[in-house]
Every structure is written in C-alpha cells, then in structure tokens.
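Supplementary Methods S3. Complex input for the zinc ion-bound model.
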Amino acid sequence: MKYPRTTKRYCPNCRSHQIHNVTLYKQGKRRALSWSDRQVERKKRGYGSFPKEIFHKNAKINKKSTPILECSECGKKQYAKSYRVKRLELQEV
Ligand SMILES: [Zn+2]
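Predicted complex, serialized as structure tokens:
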C-alpha cells in the first residue's frame, strides 16, 4: 500500500488543518532487564509449567503498520489510522 509522505490533517494542538510529515512507527528497543523478562527468567529456572504458552497458530499474517503524523507548525505527533498490509510505502505525491 502507498501512503503520502506529507498530508494536510487536522492538528488538535493548533486546532486547525496543518501540513503533517509522515513517518512509520517502529518498535523501540527492548530493555534487557525489564520486570516481565526477569519474572519469566525466574519462573523458567525452577520446577513447574512453562511460564507462557507458546503460540503456534498464527491467524494473522500481516502486522499492523502505523503512520505517525508530525505537525509542521507545532511539532506534535499523532498516530494515523493503522493498516494490516504486507508493506506500507511512503511516497511523494
Ligand atoms: Zn500543530
């Protein structure tokens, strides 16, 4: 799917339509010692069942990709509607 690199959208901060620059959302780096990771590690060490069920049936093939709109006036970022597509390309219009 193709998505424009710049769009004119409503900015709630400016309360008017402004030109927005579009980037795609990328997942941040995972912290090495997050609480949930430490908890899983602790549980894996001892007896008992595996802490989390391993998910085998993947019903959804495509991941959701979310465009982020950044207002060119105030610089505030907003999320646009996300799509479940194989590839979301940014393109000039
Ligand atoms: Zn704005």
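The mean pLDDT is 89. The longest strand covers residues 16-24.
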